[in-house]
Amino acid sequence: CVLCGRTDDCPEKYGEKRTYVAYNLTVHYYCLLMSSGIWQRGQEDEGVDGFLIADIRKEVNRAAKLKCNICKKKGASIGCVAPKCKRSYHFPCGIQKECIFQFMEDFRSYCWEHKPVQKFSDKESRGTSQCTICLDLVEQLPAYTVLKSPCCKNAWFHRECLQYQALSAGIFFFRCSVCNNKDKFQKEMLRMGIHIPEKDASWELEENAYQDLLQCYQHCDIKRCLCKKGRDYNEPDSKWEIKRCQCCGSRGTHLACSAMKSWEQNWECMECRSILAKSGNYSKQKKRSLATSEKTDGTTCLLEEPSPKCPRQSPGSQRSFLLQSPKIMCQNNLSPCSHRERPASNRVMMSLSPLMSNRNCSLRKKHLRKNRREVSNILKELKLQVNTKTTRLNINAENIWSSALKGFRQRNFNPTNTIEIKFTNCKNRSKTDTSAASKHHFFQLLMLHLQNSSLFEGSSAKNLSLDFQAVKENLYFEAGKMIAVSLVHGGPSPCFFSKTLFNCLVYGPENVKPALEDVADVDVARTIKMIKYANSLSSLQSAIHDCYEFLAAAGCLRPITSLCDKDMLVNDILIHHVIKRIISPLESFRQGLKTLGVLEKMQMHPDAFSSILCHKPERLSAETICDLFTIHSSSDVNKVEGADFWMGYLQDVESGESVVTLEDILLFTTGSISIPPIGFDPEPTIKFLHKRYPVGNRLLNCLELPITTTYDQFKNKMEFTIRNTLRVERE
What we know:
Elements: H1 11-14, E1 17-20, E2 25-28, H2 29-34, H3 53-63, E3 78-79, E4 88-89, H4 91-96, E5 100-101, E6 109-110, E7 128-130, E8 137-139, E9 146-148, E10 156-158, H5 159-173, H6 183-191, H7 202-205, E11 242-244, E12 252-254, H8 270-279, H9 281-292, H10 300-303, H11 315-324, H12 344-352, H13 356-383, E13 390-395, H14 400-409, E14 418-423, H15 436-451, E15 456-457, E16 463-464, H16 468-472, H17 475-488, H18 499-507, H19 522-532, H20 537-546, H21 548-554, H22 565-579, H23 583-593, H24 598-604, H25 606-613, H26 622-628, E17 630-633, H27 639-654, H28 662-670, E18 685-689, E19 695-697, E20 702-706, H29 711-730
Parallel strand pairs: 13-14, 17-18, 18-20
Antiparallel strand pairs: 1-2, 3-4, 5-6, 7-8, 9-10, 11-12, 15-16, 19-20
Helix pairs in contact: 13-25, 15-17, 17-23, 19-20, 19-22, 24-25, 26-27, 28-29
């Protein structure tokens, strides 16, 4: 460049580097714009954008006599405009020394001592927040590299991020990324030295950038497409015409594949259906359509929308409930009556029955069990990715988080490898314990640590918290990754997700409405309650005045003209505090959960995964343990008598007539106190053998039981062995 003498070609920093062979001239555009002794005296098509070649050569000669106050070399064409300031410098040197160049009006330049600065009131909090462009951390300090939005009190940016955005958006689209203010925002950014080119946005200049929007989606996305000519085949006015989702238009189905009789019928894809279901609209549409449809197989009552006061039931669970209830059996043929056939008196009697709540609870538990069985099958499908190649993790049980983090971040760690656990601080453990019990114990400790860590907040149902240090170290991603690996590799599930957190992960934060229960901060909750329960306009305005700084920092200030405005204000605060505030940790956490395809399955089967992520494991029962174990018996053993002793013992343990618990039995056999979501591999078995005492083979998940002549002998041997074995292990 003839003005700065540098060969750098960096359009973002120095403007476009232009070479004019005819004039033997190369110049940076910004060096030319900011030079103090030159003006555009020509038309736009003359010289260099109106700068005449003769004027450029005069400016070069003038600058050749001036020494740069920064690099001490000749050619300093830019001078500080502050009165009595004699400093001159090259444009790149000025950038390096943090000078301010204003790309407006007279294109003024200010040296590092006289440059304009943004004003900050003493009351404003100092700390760290997110740059709303790159979402990285930014210090809330009056520095050259940091700029504050003039229109939003809680919006901070990196100077570099703003400059890149301005160059891309141009003068027509460059605005505050938080509130979309244009005039005030551009004026301040120009004052602080951000160059906003007078051009259209880069995405508007790209040729055929929106060409894809002119094409209709033509693909059948149904799981089992019936069309023999393929999913992309589309024949208008036939059963193979492709119908697009009426909500998003980005999914499709052949009419025949979704059993639609005409193109006029509405159809929603699974993603939109889940969003509609969340908002409550889909269920209403579904109820209307069922009411008008004709059912000839006598199952109308099983397909009806359940009452909003009753838990949602699957058809199978409702049918079994009908068969078990003697009050609603028809007297003529003892077959279940439909809901519409029952007398009104019977319906009233049922709704008032004291047994109804117990039945509802039982049905809810059956529904949870069904969902957990579904999750188990899904996780087993995901586990097919795991190969036989092993990755060993050295784990210190006393410092579970650090050692787990180190293991997951080691270069050779691959979530598709089989994981081996080596407990380095346990003298009595084998050097490398490959059993599922040891691995389950590791994941159990890890999930317990995550539940009580600073990454989450809340009492029992937890949401993500905002920990800047954790964001900086990418710990939210690692936490999501650990949970995904635990689920697929046979570990326990977290069981502490709040419904709000789960819905944010599955449906996206923009489709979730948080509640007051999601606020863990006592002071914030108190502020929301003051506003929510204000019973007059004056008390509402007083509450807002008391928490003015908090509302301003949250960007939730809004004009209050009536008492009903408080609902929208409360909603704004909840969305900011519970969702927007942790949007960066949430995105990192989502990325971690994508490991092994877990998040994708969560989004496809939300009800099933909610049962293990938002609900604690069901308390073990004798029936659960009995169903869990498969009994294998040798030919010379009375299998029926041995099984009777076993089931009788389980009943005694459940009723409290034993010194051991059902969890102790499971721990003795498998090394786990709960059933993991994926189930046990191999599946637990029981063998009746000629042994003195029972043996728990944790490598095979096999419980070897002694053959005895009486039940008392069987019970005494079980209790003696299990109690003493577990006591020694604990010691």
